[in-house]
Amino acid sequence: MARHRRLTAAKTVEFLLIGRHCSDMTRRYFGTDGIRGRANAEPMTAETALRVGMAAGLHFTRGEHRHHVVIGKDTRLSGYMIEPALTAGFISMGMNVILVGPMPTPAVAMLTRSLRADLGVMISASHNLFEDNGIKLFGPDGYKLSDDVEIEIESLMAGGVSGQLSAPKDLGRAVRLEDAHGRYIEFAKNTFPKGMTLGDIKIVIDCAHGAAYKVAPTVLWELGAEVIRVGVEPDGFNINRDCGSTAPEHMCEAVRREGADIGIAVDGDADRVVIADETGALLDGDQLMALIAEHLRKRERLSGGGLVATQMSNLGLERHLQSRGLHLVRTQVGDRYVVEHMRSHGYNLGGEQSGHIILSDHATTGDGLVAALQVLAVVAEAGRPVSDVGRCFEPLPQALRSIGYNGGTVLDLGPVREAIEAGEAALGQSGRLLIRKSGTEPKVRVMAEGDDETLVARVVDDIVAVIARHAG
Predict the structure, then answer these.
(1) Sign of the alpha-carbon dihedral angle for 339, 344, 350, 354
(2) Rounded to an integer, what is the distance from CA 400 to the centroid of its chain?
(3) Buried b / exposed e across 62-92, counting CB within 10 Å, b at 16+?
């Protein structure tokens, strides 16, 4: 559809603002990536988690067979509260619960399909700090739920399901899957080319004290790499704190200090990744998608003639792909929307600048470790430094800032609209301006890009300043 293509600056702003407002009017709990909020405050309370379990359990109960749900989590303290509440909700609806403990989000999606479960749940607030938590739901096919299904679950939560509870003899059971780590480790290794190893490659891996703290270093070590482990000592409080893909400076420093060939940093639930070359210079999701796209194209394995990204991806990526005879399709922000477009239009590569990279030949959702393995395969095959093969294009100057707001309609206020229109006019046809409400936090994101770095920064600063004066 036309709305997925690259738009002019003015149209892009309009699309994002209207799109978020429509979503806000019909959904109370679910955002762009499940349910998320401050732990032990609505909506992330044990009571709400119980109702989510009951409502989702009821929705996914189909037929007479015994139903199963896979539940994983990251390492934050509040997981100990949310996990048993969800478990109780599912059991009360007659579902058997398979607990896998701390595991990456993509591992939960994979196990949901592998175990023929009816539903998968990941308890995580992704890249947020430990004070927050979230609930992500996957269907039996391992894909995140559609907007329509989430709205139906919200309707069941509001209406109550107490009249449809299971009889005592039909209650579900809870079991722990003891070999869950091993299953995912073998899955991840099988995405790496057969007959190739990571011998002679020294890797720094930063697991953000999160869900991948055991499995990611193990995969790299079993493939033959020398592994320097960072962010692998979770204590319930330190997830994503000054580490991981959203704070990669520590990883970059470790690369330089250890003389490593490459650095890899995932976030708390390991569905996103950023990479550092041997000098400690960062490669974001746009650069990684460009590298993987070229690698797949050379082997005639790139489907769709390009890749799918969001409105946040750099214009430099789009120009680079065009120079290679490929195209970039843009969706609204959120990896779920990228996946939806990939599935409906036959693409096998997509993702976000933040490092969510979806390789549908291997996985149903973003997988930071699997994406890193594809980059490592290119590096190992080329036999050249990451700095030589990893920086595919020169990004345009881009500025992004976030500002908190009180949940009102600040973006509809006259002074704010005037500031946005002034920014669009200043950038002209050579730049882009994107304004959107976050789907996971009470914040407004302001992003601009163009050929003039000074102008881009000024436009963002001016708009943020106006929003700040009216944000409450």
Answers:
(1) negative
(2) 18
(3) eeeeebbbbbbbbbbbbbebbbbbbbbbbbb
Q: What is the pTM of this model?
A: 0.87
What 8-state DSSP symbol labels residue 259?
Answer: T
Rg from Cα positions in the chain: 22
- Residue 358, H or E segment: strand 357-359
Active site residue 126: yes
Rounded CA separation 371/368 (Å): 5
CA distance linking residue 427 with residue 423, whole number of Å: 6
Q: Tell which residue, 93, 73, 88, has the closest CA to residue 156.
A: 93
d(CA 244, CA 251) in angstroms, rounded, equals: 8
Q: Does position 472 have pLDDT exceeding 80, yes or no? A: no
Whole-angstrom Cα distance, residue 465 to residue 103? 40
| CA-based nearest residue to 416, from 435, 443, 401, 432 | 435
- Please name every residue paired with 134 in a beta bridge, in sequence order, or none if there are none: 36
* Active-site pick, 78, 92, 124, 126: 126
Q: Percent of the chain, pLDDT > 70?
A: 93
List C-alpha distances in Å: 374 to 87, 123, 346, 357, 434: 35, 27, 20, 11, 30
pLDDT tens figures, 65-112 = 899 999 999 999 999 999 999 999 999 999 999 999 999 999 999 999
- State residue 4's pLDDT score: 36
Tokens read off for 273? 């990744």
SS3 per residue for 189-242: HCCCCCCCCCCCCEEEEECCCCCCCCHHHHHHHHCCCEEEEECCCCCCCCCCCC
Average the pLDDT over 368-378 and give the result. Answer: 97
